[in-house]
Design a protein that fits this description.
The protein is of the alpha/beta class. The chain is 28% helix and 15% strand.
């Protein structure tokens, strides 16, 4: 397999609004990120993924872009951005930007012009229909079609009504998108994370689907997810733009299989470096994200194994347990109370020992947890607020808030916890969203002091991965798939073989591995407990990485 910098890199995702506020207005900013570059370098990070900082009305926290070539004032200036990019590169850290081109803001000049008249040259930059062609539901609730009073037609918005979908059938639109991509790449950025990029191709007939979602609208996803034409668009994008630069690209692609991922990321197809798939992220979902269910380790392993094996020889995996749209990993897949430290380290061992590019979301490295605001008034996420409005008259308030506490995107968007000072060292004034009260105990400053903290363990694991390419490029072999508490697998190349043992339970477990493994000489290289460990038994949430000789 061909070596690539983005395969060997460690990605750290920054949600700028919540990372570090440098001017004490309660909103994180670019200068705040610059301030923390030494921290990121010390952690071992060599790639930053930056969530949108473009000019935006912020209906959807920056994913509604008003101007793709301007910086939102609350984040700083273009000069600040240029300084950030320069300082990151001086520290051997690459930067990838969020590219949001399935939709724009309704305040973008393209849409402002588009809705002026039916014969405007920008009209076909968006998807307009004389009549509402179907009953597709928006991901944020309600219909995905919005009536425009001026021109008496409907426009498509798969997300907020302030996020009209772009019409990729229009060649002029595509060329304008390619131009803005070149503009950023010529500045020196190192690639893009492409928001819902597998939705840019739509069935132009806009058929109805008899399958209703829980909100009473139709699930139209079969008519805009992973359509064949999306690959035509991406290959054109690659030919006209990406192939001219040494870049990393990761496409956000919900509803994909390993076969789909190969189509998107296999080298010879000239599309993307990798994709984000969501099968693991949906493990506790039901008919919608709010009606969650308890997940189990057997299903968890089956999903990961499927993707590890499915992309063994073709394509490339992205490895992550959370992002800005998902609850805190430690509250979801670990134990954020009695075994917070142990389970936080365990999850880092998983992320950093699988085949694929690992992604760490801000705060994950110190074990930040979910937040449970008492009042809906404290929530800022549009998806959460729309859900509350939809169900408040039909469901028990306690049940609604329980679902929000577990699933809201605001769980991951509370301010980064830097120290135990007021507002957690994020700012000296009230943050745009309340900070988690546990910042007193869970913060970077305290973590750095503690030799056995989650943060210091992340440093150890990152260094270990970088020094052992078997964990990057080596084969993946699953062991004991039916064990309901233990996740065990091998990572091997021609030089080294590592056995990874992860106890995902609150119980001490004893185990036996196949004789061909037991018979080998074994050296314990990494464990997440400071107390002695024995081969064949694991304490609650204990993880071990063992070198086989």
């Amino acid at each position: 397999m061909k070596r690539k910098w983005w395969k060997e890199g460690i990605v750290y995702q920054i949600y700028p609004k919540s990372f570090k506020d440098s001017n004490n207005d309660g909103i994180g900013d670019i200068k705040g990120i610059i301030e923390k570059i030494p921290y990121l370098k010390d952690l071992g990070i060599n790639i930053i993924w930056l969530n949108p900082i473009y000019d935006s009305p912020n209906d959807d926290n920056g994913y509604d872009i008003r101007n793709y070539q301007a910086i939102l004032q609350e984040f700083g200036t273009m000069e600040d951005f240029d300084l950030l990019l320069n300082e990151l590169h001086k520290n051997n850290i690459k930067l990838i930007m969020d590219l949001v081109v399935n939709h724009s803001s309704d305040e973008h000049n393209w849409f402002v012009e588009s809705r002026k008249s039916k014969d405007n040259k920008y009209r076909d930059y968006y998807i307009w229909q004389n009549e509402k062609p179907n009953n597709w539901g928006s991901f944020f609730g309600g219909s995905s079609w919005e009536f425009d009073e001026l021109t008496k037609e409907y426009y498509l918005h798969l997300f907020s009504k302030k996020q009209p979908d772009l019409n990729w059938e229009n060649e002029n639109l595509r060329n304008d998108v390619y131009s803005l991509m070149k503009w950023w790449l010529d500045k020196g950025i190192d690639g893009f994370r492409m928001d819902v990029i597998n939705m840019i191709a739509k069935n132009p007939l806009y058929p109805s689907n008899p399958s209703l979602m829980s909100n009473g609208f139709e699930d139209g996803s079969k008519y805009f997810l992973n359509l064949p034409k999306v690959h035509d668009y991406l290959q054109e994008m690659n030919k006209k733009v990406l192939s001219n630069y040494d870049v990393m690209t990761v496409g956000e692609c919900p509803g994909t299989s390993p076969k789909d991922a190969i189509l998107f990321s296999e080298d010879k197809r000239n599309e993307l470096s990798m994709i984000f798939q969501f099968e693991l992220m949906d493990i506790d979902g039901t008919d919608n994200k709010w009606n969650y269910k308890k997940w189990n380790l057997k299903d968890f392993k089956e999903i990961i194994n499927k993707w590890q094996i499915g992309l063994e020889h073709e394509g490339w995996n992205s490895i992550y347990l959370m992002n800005h749209d998902r609850p805190r990993a430690i509250s979801r897949f670990g134990n954020d109370k009695e075994y917070r430290k142990e389970s936080g380290k365990l999850l880092s061992m998983l992320t950093l020992s699988l085949k694929g590019t690992p992604y760490i979301y801000q705060g994950e490295e110190i074990g930040m947890t979910n937040i449970a605001f008492d009042s809906i008034k404290d929530y800022k996420d549009i998806e959460t607020l729309n859900y509350y409005k939809e169900v408040i008259n039909n469901e028990n308030i306690n049940s609604i808030m329980d679902k929000i506490h577990y699933s809201s995107r605001d769980n991951s968007r509370t301010p980064m916890q830097w120290n135990n000072q007021e507002f957690g060292g994020f700012s000296e004034s009230n943050p745009w969203i309340k900070i988690n009260p546990n910042y007193i105990d869970i913060n970077v400053e305290e973590s750095l002091k503690d030799e056995f903290s989650i943060l210091n363990f992340y440093k150890e694991m990152i260094k270990f991965r970088k020094n052992n390419l078997a964990l990057v490029y080596g084969t993946f072999t699953n062991l004991d798939i039916n064990n309901e508490n233990l996740y065990s697998y091998l990572r091997s190349d021609n030089e080294n073989s590592f056995l990874i043992l992860l106890n995902f339970s609150e119980e001490k477990i004893n185990f036996e591995l196949p004789e061909e493994i037991n018979s080998k000489n074994k050296e314990l290289k990494i464990k997440n407990y400071k107390t002695p460990s024995n081969f064949g038994e694991l304490k609650p949430y204990e993880g071990q990485i063992i070198k086989l000789k």
